Amino acid sequence: MHFPSFLNRSAAGIVLCVLMAAPALPAHAQAPAEPASASASPSLAASPALQAPQALTAIRPPVAATSNPYGLRALWEQGDWVAKTTLIILAIMSLSSWYVLVAKLIAQTKMGGQGKAANQSFWAADTVRQGADTLQKGSPYRFIAESALEATRKHDGLIGQVDLNTWVTQSIERAVATVHSRTQEGLAVLATVGSTAPFVGLFGTVWGIYNALVKIGASGQASIDKVAGPVGEALIMTAIGLAVAVPAVLGYNWLVRRNKVAMDTVRGFGSDLHTVLLAARAQRPPEQA
Asked: Are 78 and 233 in contact (CB under 8 A)?
């Protein structure tokens, strides 16, 4: 073997290998570009245009509830001093009626408890004086008993010329009438509110509609969106007036009914007391009755 020929064959083999390997190089050179295209595909998949409708509804922000532009707040802010004064009057009438309603309900409940205590303790006493002392101070039943005792003690002089039965009867009736007057206190407020609140609200409605028509005429726009707001705000006045009047009327009727039941018990107590006093007067001196 000659050395130069060996080199020639070796060089020819190397060149052949290089030529055979040359077409595969571009393929390897393009390999790093594939991740780039792969990385680009997720961005395309993440675009909003390619997402499913369910995903869009899931990430959609909640719609904020719009406030009523024609409510009480708008009525107060846009109303003049007449409308605001009308609202204040209606608020005062409502507060006063509810105060009277609650106060009278408490007083009637207390009076009912005093009537039960009087029936249990008064008639079990030995004398009318002892029975009156067992009753609670400020109780209408104790007031009637003490008024009757006072009448028996003062049955002298000119009054002594009147029959004792008639004098004691008149004293007890006056005491019962005083108790009845006290139970009627505050009911006039409910009657007044119940009868006048609708008209006060109607006045506010008329005034509000008048101002609304003036504004509409001045602006020259009579579309529904320009008319509905001011007129609707004015009509709120009528609704407020009715909301103030209805509880006052219902409360008045309810309290009057409860007063009637309570006064029936008071009158029965006074009638029985009258009988006991006459019997005690016939048996012993009035100081010991």
From this structure: yes
